[in-house]
Design brief:
39% strand; 25% helix; single chain; 3-stranded antiparallel β-sheet; alpha+beta; elongated
Length: 72
């Protein structure tokens, strides 16, 4: 499975949220990025919940240690 990231988002428009979703979907380290629970704010903005799985290779200590100059 790998670790999961969760966050709350607040943007001015649905278009801004759609653009952010597009950016996240192109990130090789985020798996299944998803916005949900959309709500309008009193000022006309949009709030949403965000979740995504993080590719375990992004946080692999073994890979980080192997890339140190001492190990080459």
């Amino acid at each position: 499975g790998g670790p999961t990231i969760t966050a709350k988002a607040e943007v001015q428009t649905y278009n801004a949220l759609a653009q952010q979703e597009n950016i996240f979907s192109q990130n090789e380290f985020l798996k299944n990025p998803e916005f949900s629970s959309f709500n309008l704010t009193e000022s006309g903005g949009v709030t949403a919940d965000f979740t995504a799985k993080i590719d375990p290779l992004l946080i692999s200590y073994k890979k980080a240690i192997e890339s140190l100059p001492l190990n080459q």
